[in-house]
Amino acid sequence: MEYRSFVKSSFIPTSLDRLKRFHEDPKALAKLTPPPIVMQLHRDARRSITDGEIEFTLWFGPLPIRWIAGHEAGPSPHSFADRQIKGPMAYWRHEHVFTEKPGGVELTDRIVLAHRPGLAGVLTRLFFDGLPLRILFAYRHQRTRMATQLE
């Protein structure tokens, strides 16, 4: 299995507390899902952003992609990770790292992923790798900035 990495960092002019509260909101995933993709939540059994599971479907037009993600502690005190328990990828672990900086917070998303062989891998490469992944996280960082900016 070939593992790939993706990293996207942005400076967000907000407080660490505000950024954390945004990610704790059960509606955050829907807010971070760009149109025309529709996120359908089935089960949210998270006790916190570092503990529990969430089950959802991402609708790419008529194509549903079901996902169960486990939330766990990340690599630093101000971070968390979601790891695919069941879903389209052979492997997916996404770290959300918040680092305080003068005037705001640096948001870093780090993903390690691997595709399945065959048709499933072709489809996940089209939706969850390369340019689509860069576009997705550019959108997510912009939405996070808009949702957490200080007045």
Please give a structural write-up:
This protein is α+β, with helices and mostly antiparallel strands and about 150 residues long. The chain is about 30% helix and about 45% strand. The longest helix is centred in the last third of the chain and has 19 residues.
> Widest sheet: strand order?
1-7-6-5-4-3-2
The rough form would be described as globular
Number of helices: 4
Largest sheet report: 7 strands, antiparallel
Distance between the termini: 47 Å
Please give the radius of gyration in angstroms: 15 Å
User: What is the β-strand count?
Assistant: 7
Structural class: alpha+beta
Residue runs with pLDDT of under 50 for 5 or more positions: none
Percent of sequence in beta strands: 35-45%
Explain briefly what this protein structure is.
The protein is 28% helix and 44% strand. It has 151 residues and is an alpha+beta fold.
Task: Write the SSE topology.
Layout: E1 4-12, H1 16-24, H2 28-31, E2 38-44, E3 52-60, E4 63-73, E5 79-86, E6 91-101, E7 104-114, H3 118-127, H4 130-148
Antiparallel strand pairs: 1-7, 2-3, 3-4, 4-5, 5-6, 6-7
